[in-house]
Amino acid sequence: MDSRPIGVFDSGLGGLTALRELARLMPEEDLIYFGDTGRVPYGGRSRETLIQYARQDVAFLKTFQPKAVVIACGTVSATALDVLTAENTFPIYGVVESAARLAAARTQSRKVGLIGTRASIRSGAYERALAALDPAIQVYPQACPLLVPLVENGRFRPGDAVTEQVVAEYLTPLKEAAVDTLILGCTHYPLLRDVVQSYMGPEVTLVDVGAACADWVATSLEEHGLRCGGTAPGRRQYYVSDSTEDFAYLASLFLGQDITDGVAQVDITRY
Amino acid sequence: MDSRPIGVFDSGLGGLTALRELARLMPEEDLIYFGDTGRVPYGGRSRETLIQYARQDVAFLKTFQPKAVVIACGTVSATALDVLTAENTFPIYGVVESAARLAAARTQSRKVGLIGTRASIRSGAYERALAALDPAIQVYPQACPLLVPLVENGRFRPGDAVTEQVVAEYLTPLKEAAVDTLILGCTHYPLLRDVVQSYMGPEVTLVDVGAACADWVATSLEEHGLRCGGTAPGRRQYYVSDSTEDFAYLASLFLGQDITDGVAQVDITRY
Question: Which of B191, B210, B229 is the endpoint of a domain?
Fold first, then answer.
């Protein structure tokens, strides 16, 4: 039994979709969320800058003495998990491996689509993870740089003509390749689930990387005897690097409920 | 005569459209450009964070002992010019006032449209500048948060269905209001000139804030006896806060020519 909190971070607020799943599976755990809203988005930045930002994000979470850290960011998971793991003693969970495992288990045709930011796709991390699980799987990767801006501007609902057109454009080659499983390789994308499912068709399985990761984290903490073991609802604390003024609106979109706990601002460059 | 360089900065590489105009009008001046590519985009951030970032940008440029600094960024010009001017002894030029002057001089109907980032529009800076020049001018402001991501992804050319649709959506109320002048209040937007002109019609005057600012800077430096007075071509130096690897491609889009001078990376958080 371990009552220390679980740290969770993302470039911005998209990672709250993963936090929501963690809270659903482990309601009694204390969760500390950091969203780097002063430097979002990460998806177009270089590997070098991503690693620097991720190190600072983890350094901030370490001030809470976490028992584990979850990288609720597809881009950081795909580019910096190895570096962060090597530098820390507690377990660090990224979204790539758990999503790859779920996709490999679900695909029948062994044709798996993958959408993510430019940096995620460029990293090749999902391809490597899938190849290690089943070398026969063919991966169809597609960088989708406009999806994060669309989601961050609240434009993710079916009927938004611009979003539907952008999604169709990005997904055309994946649909033509007849993938039967599609990894939504960014924690912003669950909000686009309806638009994506509608374009791809109901027979395509969508893998939500945040939900897959939360499943894995819960299992892994259990196996390592790191669950808190209490029954009282855990505390949720939210930190961001930009002003907190717009936090409540966006956070409620990603969490699917209003935030009642407080949020505080952090100068992340000090870490 | 003053041979010190002119410093120019922007959140990213959009400000190169202003640098291009400065270089055209004053080819013999030395120009130092800083693009904060590690933290771009600025347009959705809070005033507090914008001021912090802008202070660091100016502090970096000050290491070159500039005779003047140009804020080649609509968002910073609209939110932080007063603060930066109060803190420094050399002249600092923003894009708001010069664009307002040009728009006020050109409009016949006294109906002026304004497009910019969320932070620029929220600041009300253009409305104040226009009201000071002519209180009878009616301003029609429109925040366009998706235009910077579209331009940064190279999607600014006529025929791009997504971009044309987004532009039409943003500009519909301005066209319906029958504005005869439209301020392109962000240094990324000159790349969208053809798409915007095509939608608004040839009779609407587009005001390029970077070009208007460059005109004003050249005149002002002349008046203050701050021109360098030489005839040899000035040096151009480029600095960015993210890796320099993608710089050449994007920079050539904004500058309209290939960059032959070097580019270096800066840790902007140290300033």
Answer: B210
Do B190 and B176 belong together in one domain?
Answer: yes
For the segment A189-201, the average pLDDT, to the nearest whole number, is: 97
Whether residues A219 and A202 share a domain: the answer is: no
Partners of residue A249 in chain B, C-beta under 8 Å: none
Can you list the residues of chain B whose pLDDT is less than 50? none
pLDDT of residue A203: 98
φ/ψ of A106, rounded to 5, equals: -90, -35
Range of the domain at B164: 96-210
Mutate to test the interface with A, among B11, B36, B48 (most CBs of A within 10 A): B48
8 Å CB contact of A38 and B44: no
Q: How far is A213 from chain B (nearest CA, A)?
A: 28
Does an H or E element contain B238, and which?
strand B236-240
> What is the value of pTM for the model shown?
0.93
Rounded CA gap, B31 and B6, in Å? 5
pLDDT tens-digit map of A41-95: 999 999 999 999 999 999 999 999 999 999 999 999 999 999 999 999 999 999 9
Instruction: Report H helices in chain B.
Output: 16-25, 47-62, 74-87, 96-106, 118-123, 125-133, 147-152, 161-176, 193-200, 209-223, 247-255
Average predicted confidence (pLDDT) for chain B: 95
Whether A145 sits inside 8 A of B149 (CB atoms) is yes
